[in-house]
Specification:
The chain is an alpha+beta fold. It has helices spanning 3-23, 48-52, 55-68, 82-99, 127-145, 161-173, 187-190, 193-203, 207-217, 241-258, 277-294, 332-345, 354-371, 378-400, 403-412, 417-424, 430-434, 437-440, 445-451, 456-463; strands at 107-113, 119-124, 178-183, 221-223, 226-228, 262-266, 269-274, 305-308, 317-322, 325-330. Strands 2-1-4-5 form a four-stranded mixed β-sheet, with no helix packed on it. It has a four-stranded antiparallel β-sheet with strand order 6-7-3-8, sandwiched between helices. The protein starts with a helix and ends with a helix.
Amino acid sequence: MNGRKQKTEKDTCQREDRAALEDNVEGQTFLWMTENGDTSTKPQEPELLEFILSPKNLNEAYKKVMRNKGRGGVDRMQTDEIVDYLREHKDELLTQLLDGKYKPHPVLRVEIPKENGKKRSLGIPVVVDRVVQQAITQQLTPIYERQFSPSSYGFRPGRSAHQAVMQCLANANEGYCYVVDMDLEKFFDTVNQSKLIEVLSRTIKDGRVVSLIHKYLRAGVMTHGHYEETTTGVPQGGNLSPMLSNIMLNEMDKELENREHRFVRYADDCMIFCRSQRAAERVLAGITKFIESKLFLHVNREKTVVAHITEVQFLGYGFYRSKDQFRPRLHNKSAEKMKAKIRLLTSRSSGWGNERRKLELKQFIIGWLNYFRLADMSKLLEKTDEWYRRRLRSLIWKQWKRIKTKHRNLIKLGIPKLKAFEYANTRKSYWRTAGSPILSRSITNDRLRKAGFIFFSDYYKQVHCVN
């Protein structure tokens, strides 16, 4: 690359950056390879780090982080503040990254409650580190996609949980109906960083990139103002974490493929399919030895089971036999979680207004059904809707409060005056009243729909995939 070409690229980037600053703040390119055109200390041919720090790649990473938003890290910088920061510090940031002197910030540890009462730790990087991590991920993705197994579905472009569930069904319907339901104990917290760096180094020949990733792994965490080192694990919550988890677990995928086992993996959830229970038990013993001795991960022996496919859940789905084939269903635990969420959104003591409640319910129901649209659950949703509408009527009845208000509203809804007076003076509880003719005749299903409430059964008929 000669000096004249470098100057041309530099000038082009500067012109594009100035134009973007004037015309389109959100879509602009803030960073470029070099500010002064001096690349004498850089390799003549661009290596991976140069591609990661290229203007186009960094700009795409910046826009992705801006779209995802999210809270700030330990420096408390929010996503909408990064524009000014990059304008002022882009040269210093690029120089440090290219020279290997950049030090990532520790991640901010937050704890998210889990269904079992325990907590999941998430690490929130600062916004600048999120941009850099996203830029690394964008360049690693096409490199590793060529290596990843077709049986891996999590956090990969063009792949989804639905595809993973359908592959499970395909395996079962071909006679592989006994499964090893593999659970890796605290996977993200126990990844052996030395092993991960070794695996990365087999593919990534630019040592500066491997070193930068290692720095992110060792950046540490801040918990309640106290710094803690991170000598093991991959912090959940960073832009790099899904990619690194797939790179690590691809070692297990290759071993399973070498042994000619059928399997489906989504992130750290893995199902291995066998024709018999004895075969599944042998597979479990063999793969457990590999995982613990070669990858230095831990198999949770309490949660890892060998079972018939109808006895396990995968990504919230269960499976059942219908005539001569297996079909997807909603797992009982998923149904319980859904009802718990509806209870929360229809709570009579939340203090929400009706418009906010309708929006929250609509967003939840649509999102939930789009995820579980593969499941056969028509009858379940019909019963759920009956219970859900009763909760809505109970809520509305409480909102009317005074007897005069109840009497007036019942008349407006078509109840004769005398009957409306009788109903308005009922001494039944809110819940009993909601299940009685008092409200089923006045606050009808159609009126609830017209008011803007969405029902599970209605939307399910629109999105359900019959396979």
